[in-house]
Amino acid sequence: MSFDLLILMMFAGAFLAYLISKSNSEAGGISTVVISLISLVLLLLGKSQVGNEFAILYMTFKVTTIGWYFSAVMILVYSMTSFFNSYWMKQMLYPNAYNFLYLFSLAGTVGLFFAADLVTLFIFWEMVVWSSTFIVPLGKSRRAAVVYYTISSIGSMATLYAIMLLHAKSGTFIISEAFAWLATDPTMATIVFFIFILAGLTKIGIFPFHIWLPLAHGSAPHTFSPVLSGGLVKMGAFIAYMSVGVLPAYQAFSGSLKIMGMPIQIYLLMVLGAISIVLGTLMAIKQDDAKKLIAYSSVANGGYILIGILMMDQLSCAGSLMHLFNHAIASAAAFLTIAVVAHRTGTTKISELGGMIHRMPVTFTVYLISIISLAGIPPMGGFVSKWLIIQGLADKGLLFMALAAFFGSIGSFLYVFRPLAAVFLGQLAPKNYELEGATLMMKIPMVILSALIIFFGVFPRYILEVIGEIQSSIGITPIQLEGNAIQAINGLLNSYHVFVIFGFGFLISLAIFMLLQKSRKVGLMDTFTSAEFIHTPELYHYSHDFYAPFERLYKNHPSVENFLVNIANKFDELGQMVNALFFSHKPSITVFWITVVTAIIYLGGARI
Amino acid sequence: MNSMNSIVDDLKGKFDIINVVFPDDMQMAVDVDKNDVHTVLSYLKTIGYKQLSLMSGVDWIKENEFEVVFIVFNWDNGIHILLRTRLDRENPVFRTITGIYPGAQYYERDIHEFFGIEFEGNPMSYKDLFLELWDEMPPMRKDFDPLAYSQDKFPERKYESQFIPEVGVIK
Amino acid sequence: MFNIVEDTQKTREDTRKTWEKIADYFRANSIWMKWYCTGCGAMEMPPTMTSRFDMEQLGMGPMATPRQADVLLITGYLSAKTLRRVIYSYEQMQDPKYVIGFGSCTLNGGIYFDSYATMTRLDHYIPVDLYIAGCMPRPEAIMNAFDTLIAMIKKGEAKGWKHYQDNYEWYNANQIHSLKEVRVKDEFHE
Amino acid sequence: MNLMNLIYAFGLLLFAFVLQTSITGINRKVIARLQRRRGPRWFQQFIDIFKALSKSSTSHGWIFDFGVVMALGGIMATAMFIPIGPLQALPGLDNIFIIAYVLAVGMLGMAMSASGSGNPWASIGVSRALTNMLAYDIPFMVVIFGLIFAYDTSSLSGFAAIQQEGGILGWNIIRFPLGGLVAMISLQGMLGKKPFDSFIAPAEIASGPMVEYGGRHLGMLFLLHEFQTFVEVSLIVHIFFGGGATVLEYVVKYALIYTFMNIVSNILPRFKIDQAVTFFYKVPLALAMIQSLLIIVTGLGVA
Amino acid sequence: MMNPVLLIAIPLLLAFLSIILKHYKSQLLLLGSAVNMILIFGLQKGEYIIGGFKPPFGINLVLDDYAFISILVVNGLFLVINLMSFDKIDKLGTVLLVSLAGLNGMLLTGDLFNLFVFLEITSITAYILSSVSKKYQYSFNYLVLGTLGSGLYLFGLIILYSVFGSLNMADISKQMATANLNQMLIPTFLIFVGLAVEAKILPFNGWVKGVYGNANSLVGPLFASAYAGTMLFVFGRVFVQVLMVSSYLKVTLIIIGAVTLLAGEAAALSKTRIREILLYSSIGQSGLVVALFLSGLVFPAVLQIFNNIFSKAVMFTIGGKMADDTGTDEADELQGAFLKNKLAGLSFTVAAFSLIGLPLFYGFYSKINLLLGIFSLNNFWLPVVILLGTIIEGVYFIRLLVKLWTPGEEGHISTEEYATKFTIKIELAKVIGVVFLSAILIIAGILPGMVRNNLTESGQLLNEESPSYMFDLEGGI
């Protein structure tokens, strides 16, 4: 099926889902599964269409490998998450609108990734923004939607400016031509680069635009948070990729000042990425809401992705493109598990939960696998991509980025472990003794995602081959693969072998364990209590202020959120000032202003 | 000493003081009727005796009375006042002072547990504090026989030969 | 047919015994201790551990929790309240486990023999492998006791834990008689 | 990679176990002498481990067991990557980052198992251990980063080979003394020795993560600890002390470094957890940054 | 062939009739506007002389493309709004008929003084309409300022007449080309102020708050779409076709427009009442349109006027209706109001989206075009202002929409129980009307070629080179 039909079909599917939900909302939820899965299959089968061009109305499209790759990630996340939709229909105020917007935003992203001209790009970008904006308030916060829209629209308006500026200068909207023109004009390239990438930065949640992520991710409907974090955030990565890869940034900036071998323009953005990593990590560590925690982890991972993409080299760029896939599925899986917990217990507060493993072992396992990937521990996918990024940084000697990367990497152990320990492990509260686990419909996507996480961790070449194609398409050396091994300039990673050795170690360990005396099974409350008798499981559970000593070190940190809120308030005050100065109940004020303006005009005019 | 005398005079002028003794420097023991305790304590608290250092009981079994002792302390002049009152041993009921000194909570539970004195108005005072699952007579009463209790509850070791000759005497 | 079964059972029993012997060697030479210092006697432990007497030369060392420990050292008097905690701790230990009663109080109540609150005889409630008499015993006596315990383990005599398993009803009845209930609920768990 | 590699790796694993456990035992003796005690026999550590393995145990659910197995398995897998002098079971897999992160599998397994016991002491201990890790790993990684930039390799054997070319003056500890110092301090943190052992703190949080372990679980954790120590000390030997041209040379270096760290540990008190973090971010991290900047910007010390 | 004067005459005639036929006022009004609509399609472009004197001496009506398209839209909206709020017309039929005549007159006339006359007629009807809310102080303010504005306009006109000796638009336009523009500063500016009062340009618009802020579901949309649209069209005609503006004044006036845009949007951001938000948004939009006209970008300006008046008609109808029913239009009190009125809510949303300029809606087309136009003038600061305004506009509209659609407390899932306790029953006529209008916005957004084909000619009439983004099926860029 050619992709123009695919995009149209997805839009039609959105309307279809709306109609189905009208009669039966749960059937509508299931229809989102069917439609997104069909789209996924069609997209995956259509890999051979790379290079095709087509148009819908006045919008032009071109199928590229990068677009195909991004679309695949996006539809995968959407389709997996859609399995959960039907369970939340009852809680939604507008189930049919939810289903509609859900598929509509998906179709929008696919259109965005295949756009051949900048206006089409912008059209789909905005469509995704407004359609997703209206899903967010169905959750826990109205403010989140407004903040989400505000930050997004700052980015998209900047991008629109850049698009128009570029058009005014180069005379074309076609992406490849317009960007190619910039290579000749470094000043304009710098301006366009910074303004254009702003949309990407806001969407990835790079400092100082990160504030919408915890708000929107944390309070969107539980079924939409995985999509926000796993999917929509990646749109920003796409824009960043376009600004560095398609816009020949390194070529255009070849004459500019270099810091540690990097053009200053790119280095500045990398610093922002590094700040995001550190900040996301620190904030994630102190969150009490599991969803906000994963949202901040998305900020940190966004920093990795941005740094990697900005490098635009053989290793880091490949790592970054792979990381966005790994992060997409891992964070979607993590959000889904939290959704299961929220579905059963009604809360996502870490301090109110505990011992869920005894009621939902599958969910726990999925969470475990996803956080291992998020933290970048072998043999999961997240490790391979982080390894590539760090090897790339080491190759260039970008010390400060590496510092942030290490901090984010080790720090991620801290924050991913917190829900593990406090939500899934530890004491189970008596009120949750009878809790049920995930249903089959919920288990399917979670298991598929975990399987993918492991599969691409062990055999990363299947994804790196595609990335290699992308790299060659923009003229950088593709990543080198030898069988399962990744051959970097300064290191070698054969994750299949690592996996085998890990399995071998595990088997030895298991053998030791099995050969020894059998253990006696005891209850959770039969633990060392300094010989005190404790009968209340809830109180015997460590979940508040998990990293209190560490959090104390930065509890008085400055916050950019206050600064942004202040700016917003300034506009508000400006409005009030306008209101007070010009709009009173007395006409004399207006007469006064007419006099003043007339006088100014007259005096000014007299001088000419 | 002057200040202590003035306090005594002050108290005597205001309340029915049964007896005043001075056990030590900076200490005085004041006996009052059990109905006056709360007014005296309230007054003492207002003039600076803000700390309830101790509250305890004594079993005067021959006089068939319990004595309750309140030791209050003034941080400004360093004087301890021991306020003492007697209760009927047959009907040991006393009104709680937790309204005046909230910290008396645990003392009242202690005294209730060990002497069986009841504190009206303090439902918490009926709860166990030190003794878990105690079901005998309160153990600090003089007519309680701890040895018999111990022999009943905690079986003794039977020695085949007497290691210590006097052991029988002690018992 | 019948014989084979008997034979395999016998060989299995033999193997088990051999393994137990080997294991007993390890157990004797590596005794980790959890001490339960209820009243007095805690002061005697530091000299036993440090350079003067150095119990590490016997392969002994202190441990933080009963789960990790092999021997429970109970020093000083035991009130009814602490006895409950001792039993709880003892039951949390892993087999094989040993108990040393330390000082007169655990032996016969010591000077608190007539108290309404302290028990008089520890082996009534948990199996005691070894008592150290005295009020208080000197570190020499403690080291001596450890030597004895090591010898007992090597000989397979320190089977108190087995005794507790086999005669649990008796011990439990004693516990119930004296304490009514072991796992009490105190006011903080209402 | 074929079956022979695995068998070979298993052999090296056994060697590592014997080596590290013996050295631990000897070190207990050394410390005892330092404190004017007689100390245990040199094979006391073996006795302790086997005794723990021989005892009965309790389990708090499948994650409690699985975590221990995963932890030991992960650490053993890591140990298999480590070359011992010239011996290397799995050539090409001794990438520093792989080792550093596979090591984390073990840590995660243990942390998971500990929290799975339901004991809050364990969770507190894990939280401290992880915070500690965030403190000591970053200076170490920064130094390693500089070295990778300098040598364009990230394999342990590669580092060792480069250093062996220059004799004793080729050792990175000589060439990059600041980095070496940082690495040694970080090693102290990695080994969980004083002053960075607040996550064990037996008197304070009842040995933290290990609070619920007894019997075979505890024995396996002891095994894990030996392997972990082996991996961590080996990292330093390979990266900063030129590895070993022969097994003997390697073992001698290994033993000396471990003993040195142990002695240092025994004359120091314990940091609180936030003090440890502040210390690591103030001194070692600054030194590490200086060292790496020197390498990257000036190339000072690079052969 | 019809004479466009009928468009003015028929409403006036019916207005007299309606005084006699008291009970059929609203029917007559509908009849009048419907007849007008039919007449419009029979019109032929050209110049029509009234009273026999040839211009520049006589009064003439000019029906060019610009006038045609504006008359079509204004009359159409007038009809739709009256249909929607039929119940509110009641006694206002006469006034509305007169105002229709005035509006048509303003759009058609080719004479500056005649324009003044129609402006006065329209203003008087507007004063009366504004008093429907019974807030007489605001009507009085409006009256004072409106009169002042007309007075200044007349003053400017007098100066022009004394200079050129003519009031005919075409004539003045011709003579302006050779005149010293700096000498024309004062009359031009006075005319600007006179029109600015009606077109709601800061700082001459003190009356707007009281009048718009209390308008009901009939008056609100009428003011915000028919009146505002007419004023802006007239402004465009006067300042693009008739008067030449010196560069100094042009920059100043553009700045005034830009400031109006930003200040209006900022003021809307700080408001919580629905109608206040809308009125400040209208002010901002007027500023934008004025800036565009003065920059010479007629085509984008016309697009933007359409965008504004269509959207505002929808939004003011619904906002006014809410206020009519509940007595308040505080967004907080009305949260979840769309829960029971999904179609109306949807139309409101579409209108808001179009106004913000989100793709798939008509507003995006006009936004792209106006940006394209401004960039083609090598003006790089005005787009920044416009986009900043767009961001602010988006924020407050999204905030409002989120509140009206999804009631709820922070930290709690949005459920029906938080929804407003007021019941709002939007009549079928209104629903059909707003859905019709918003459907136009969507269709024009998806297929902007339709709009473009109808509009380019009128754009080219006033301004020779107006760039436009070719939204065609061919995809030519």
Describe the protein in words.
The complex is a heteropentamer of chains A (608), B (171), C (190), D (303) and E (477). Chain A is mainly alpha-helical and 608 residues long. Chain A folds into three domains: 116 residues; 417 residues, no CATH class; 43 residues, no CATH class. Chain A has 23 helices and eight strands. In chain A, the strands form three sheets. In chain A, strands 5-6-7 form a three-stranded antiparallel beta sheet. In chain A, strands 1-2 form a two-stranded antiparallel sheet. Chain B has 171 residues and is of the alpha/beta class. Chain B has one domain: Beta Polymerase, domain 2 (2-Layer Sandwich). A five-stranded mixed beta sheet of chain B has the order 1-2-5-4-3, covered by helices on one side. Chain B has a two-stranded parallel sheet with strand order 6-7. The N and C termini of chain B lie far apart (48 Å). With 190 residues, chain C is α/β, with parallel strands linked by helices. Helix content of chain C is 46%, strand content 12%. Chain C contains seven helices and five strands. In chain C, helix 1 runs antiparallel to helix 5. The radius of gyration of chain C is 18 Å and the shape is globular. The model of chain C has no long low-confidence stretch (mean pLDDT 83). Chain D is an all-alpha fold and 303 residues long. The longest helix of chain D has 32 residues. Chain D has one domain. Chain D is globular. The chains are: A mainly alpha (608), B alpha/beta (171), C alpha/beta (190), D mainly alpha (303), E mainly alpha (477). At the A-D interface, helix 15, helix 16, helix 17, strand 7 and helix 20 of A face helix 1, strand 1, helix 3, helix 4 and helix 5 of D. Strand 8 of chain A pairs parallel with strand 1 of chain D, so a sheet runs across the interface.
How many extended strands of chain C?
5
What gap, in angstroms, lies between the N and C termini of chain B?
A: 48 Å
CATH class of chain B: Alpha Beta
Top CATH class of chain C:
Alpha Beta
Domain tally of chain C: 1
The largest β sheet of chain B comes out as: 5 strands, mixed
Q: Assembly state here? A: heteropentamer
How many individual β-strands of chain B?
A: 7
The helix-strand sequence of chain C is HEHEEHEHEHHH
Strand residue percentage of chain C: 5-15%
Main structural class of chain B? alpha/beta
Strand content of chain B: 25-35%
Please state how the strands of the largest beta sheet of chain B are arranged side by side: 1-2-5-4-3
The ordered string of helix (H) and strand (E) elements of chain B is: HEEHEEEEHEHH
